[in-house]
Each structure stands twice: as C-alpha cells, then as structure tokens.
Design brief:
By secondary structure, the protein is of the alpha+beta class. It has two domains: 5-208, no CATH class; 251-474, Heat Shock Protein 90 (2-Layer Sandwich), CATH 3.30.565. Helix content is 58%, strand content 16%. It is built from 14 helices and eleven strands. The chain has helices at 5-65, 68-73, 77-80, 82-94, 119-131, 162-165, 173-179, 202-208, 210-288, 294-322, 333-350, 369-389, 421-424, 444-454, and strands at 102-107, 136-142, 145-153, 194-201, 329-332, 353-359, 364-367, 395-404, 407-414, 457-463, 468-474. The chain has a five-stranded mixed β-sheet with strand order 6-8-9-11-10, with helices on one face. Helix 9 packs across helix 11. The protein is rod-shaped, with a radius of gyration of 49 Å.
C-alpha cells in the first residue's frame, strides 16, 4: 500500500476540525443539560421557600401578632412576602455563583408592576394554566443572542393566598398603602397567579464550562499529534520500501533490456563484420594476382575503418546505456530519441519497422539520459512485440515532440493494433502484461511511468483507429 503523506495529513486535519466541532457541540449540549438540571433545582428551591413562607412562616407570624388589626398595621414584605423573600435569598446565593442566572417572578395581575408579564411570558403562563404542565424550557433568540430559558409555575391559589390577593378591602392595609389596589387583587382559589423563571445567555454557559472544553480539546489535540507521528513513521518506512521496490524493478527491467540488447549488438555487427571479411578476402585475391597497389590498400583500409568506426559507435551507445555512472545533465530530446533508435536499429531492421521522427520542439531535458532512453526503448519494444503478435505487414512508429501551451509533449504512435479498454487501464501497473510472463517481465511500462513521474511528468496511453499512442507530458 502506498501512502500519500500530504493527503493523509490533510484528511487528519479535516477530521480533527470536524471532531473538534462535534466535541464543541457535545460540550455545549452537555453544558446546557447541566445548566438545565441546576436551574431546575434552583426553581424547585424557590418554590419550596415560597411554600414554607405561605404555609408555615406567615401563619406563625399572624398568630404571634395576636389579631388581624395588628397584622394589618405591621405588614412587612421582608418577613411576610414570599416573592420578596425568595428574591432576596436568590440574590444572596447568586453572589457565590459564577454563573449569572436572571431570576424573576412574573404575573398577569401582579401587586408590584415590576413583576408584570410581557407578551411572551404571558403566553407561557397561560400554557401552565391550561395544560397543567410542570415546567417549560426553550432556547430564546433576543437581539441576536441565544438565551437559555426555563420556567415553573408557583403553587395555585389557596384560601390563605386570598388574605393578600382577594378583595383589597380585606387585604393588609400596609400592603394596599405600599402597592395600591389597582392590581394584584380579586384572585380566586385554584387560579394560577404567577410563574418563576431563570434566563441566561448561552455564551455565559459556554464561558462557565470553557475550562472543561479547553482541557478536552488539548487532550484531543495531543492524541491527533501522536496519530500524525505514527502515520509519519509508517509513511517513512513505506517510502523506503517503495524506493527499494522501484530500484529493484528498474534493475530487473534493465537486465531484461540488456538481454534483448545483446541480441541487437550481434545482429548490428553482422553486416560490418561481413563487410570487413569481404574487404580482407578482396585484398587477399588482389595480392595473389599481384594487383594490390598502394592506392587500393589505402582505399580498403579506409573502407575497413568506416566499418570499425560504426562498430565502435555501436558499442559506445550500448556501453553508455548500461553505464552506472549516468550523471544528471542537460541535453536535447532529439539526442535521446536518436540514441534510442540506434540502440534498437538492428531489431527494427530485422522486423521491417519504419520509424518516423518529427521534432517540432527540440526542448532541453534536465536529468538522466539513460533513464529517458530506457523509456523510449521500452515503449518501442512493446510496439515491436505487438507488430509481430498481430502480424501487421506495414509497420510504422511515429515519434513527435511539440509544445501545447506551457506543456512539452512527446507522442509515440504505432499502427500495431488496439488493446481492450479494460487492459488499457492496467498497462502501467507492475507485473501486468498482455504477454506470457515467462517471456515478459510485466514491468517495462511501469518503469516508464516511474521514471517520467520522477521528473514531474506524466505518461498516458490511448487507442487509435489502427493502433496506440503514448503521450509523455512535461510541465
């Protein structure tokens, strides 16, 4: 398996961002859940305080005062009003809390105007009255901010409640003097007079829980860093393995090419050796007849030197191709193409294959000469094998170089027949061959792909009407 480290890191970063977002939402929901639980507890406590004042504290004070007249004159909200006392207790509790809840009692018919319910609060209060529900919770949007909101109804009116909220004529005089008789009276037993609620900005809830979020985020970050380090270690090992594998493939391919080249050398030398032999025989016959003049000796020697020079150049081409000391250099692409054709000339002649070269763009190539020669040799050898296998009579290979926008393109085209589209998608894979692997290595085109990509190029193949075209593209 081949790892693309940058791709994996990109996926990990994206995954980290997604998980962080999910993690934040999870903590947000958890924070709201915890806040809801705490708020519910606070409202229950406030209702419990109100119940205690109404059912225990107020009757006891009334009893201690002895009569209604004394009670009326000495009415004090600080010891008798459940709303005042619960609000005071809440504010004292709030001083010790880091989370700033807004606590409020609201009614549609309040004694104190500050407790008058607005339209939204009235809607919730009416729900409590009609549906007999225990609590109400929602997330509100006000002035572009989100708020946590939870409400609970207070206890429904009892006979004792009507002492202060029934007919104002019978209410404590001090209470009527303090609040007037315009509102807060004429309640009935069983009516739901008011509700209490808590409201807090969502941002305050998140800020309150931010330490947990930061701790979790840091822990998750370190886990991702460890994963990335592990992936990097695996990537480096895999890269070394891939590099070794590619070197092995290249060596294997070079050996295979060397085997075919040895046959080319012997075939390429047959004609000049035969020519040298005929020169020697000719000189021997002329000598026996006494007709070997100095001019003829010089002529024959020059002729022989031409053949020897051809053979020497042939050996140099093969020697350079197989030389391990192939330093990176710059050279024209035409040189590479011509060298490749010279190496294969004997084989091309033997199988009557014509090669047409059209250099429209003789660009300079920076890199290993022998590696690029190997690419041409592999592709041309494959075409030769296809010509033979498909029994093509007129055999033509066309090599073109040209420029298209900012890309330099080398195309190698043949008329050796098509291959199926299914096979076409696999020809650049290692150990894949349309020929028997006992006579083919199946790595030639794979090596071509490796070499071309090493120089930031790409190689592709496509079917033509009567053959195939390989395109090598350099940016």
């Amino acid at each position: 398996m081949k790892f693309n480290f940058r791709f994996i890191i990109s996926i990990f970063i994206l995954l980290y961002a997604v998980i962080t977002l999910l993690f934040f939402n999870f903590y947000k929901e958890l924070a709201i859940k915890d806040t809801k639980k705490e708020a519910n507890s606070i409202l229950n406590n406030m209702n419990a305080i109100r119940t205690y004042i109404e059912e225990v504290q107020r009757p006891m004070i009334y009893k201690l005062m002895g009569n209604r007249e004394t009670f009326d004159k000495n009415f004090d909200a600080r010891i008798l009003s459940s709303t005042y006392i619960s609000q005071y207790i809440y504010e004292k509790q709030l001083e010790k809390k880091q989370l700033n809840y807004r606590y409020k009692l609201v009614a549609t018919n309040p004694l104190n105007p500050i407790h008058k319910a607005n339209e939204f609060e009235t809607t919730i209060l009416n729900r409590f009255r009609k549906n007999n529900i225990k609590h109400y919770f929602s997330i509100l949007e006000e002035n572009g901010k989100s708020y946590f909101f939870i409400a609970k109804p207070i206890s429904r009116n009892t006979t004792k409640c009507l002492m202060c909220h029934g007919d104002p004529k019978y209410a404590p005089k001090k209470l009527v003097m303090d609040y007037g008789n315009d509102s807060g009276f004429f309640e009935k037993v069983g009516d739901l007079r008011a509700m209490i609620y808590l409201k807090i900005a969502i941002t305050d809830i998140i800020s309150y829980h931010k330490s947990s979020f930061i701790t979790g985020g840091i822990a998750m970050f370190f886990v991702f860093i460890i994963f990335i380090i592990l992936i990097y270690i695996i990537y480096k090992k895999d890269k070394k393995l891939e590099d070794r594998k590619e070197l092995l493939f290249e060596h294997q391919n070079r050996l295979a090419v060397m085997g075919s080249m040895i046959g080319n050398i012997s075939h390429q030398w047959k004609q000049p050796l035969s020519h040298l032999s005929s020169i020697l025989i000719n000189m021997e016959l002329l000598s026996e007849r006494g007709k070997l003049s100095v001019d003829k000796v010089t002529s024959k020697i020059n002729d022989a030197n031409e053949q020897i020079y051809f053979m020497s150049n042939t050996i140099d081409d093969f020697k350079n191709f197989f030389s391990p000391k192939d330093n990176n250099d710059k050279f024209y692409i035409e040189e590479i193409i011509n060298q490749s054709i010279r190496l294969l000339q004997a084989s091309l002649d033997r199988y009557n294959i014509k090669v047409s070269i059209n250099i429209n763009e003789n660009f300079i190539f920076f890199g290993s000469r022998n590696e690029l020669v190997q690419v041409f040799v592999n592709i041309i050898n494959n075409a030769k094998d296809a010509f033979i296998a498909n029994e093509i009579e007129k055999r033509i290979i066309v090599i073109r170089t040209y420029k298209n926008l900012d890309k330099t393109i080398i195309s190698i085209q043949n008329n050796a027949g098509q291959i199926s589209n299914q096979v076409l998608g696999k020809i650049f894979k290692p150990y894949f061959s349309t020929k028997d692997l006992s006579v083919a290595t199946g790595i030639g085109l794979y090596i071509c792909k490796v070499i071309v990509e090493r120089y930031n190029g790409s190689i592709c193949a496509k079917n033509l009407d009567d053959g195939m075209k390989f395109q090598i593209i350099f940016n």
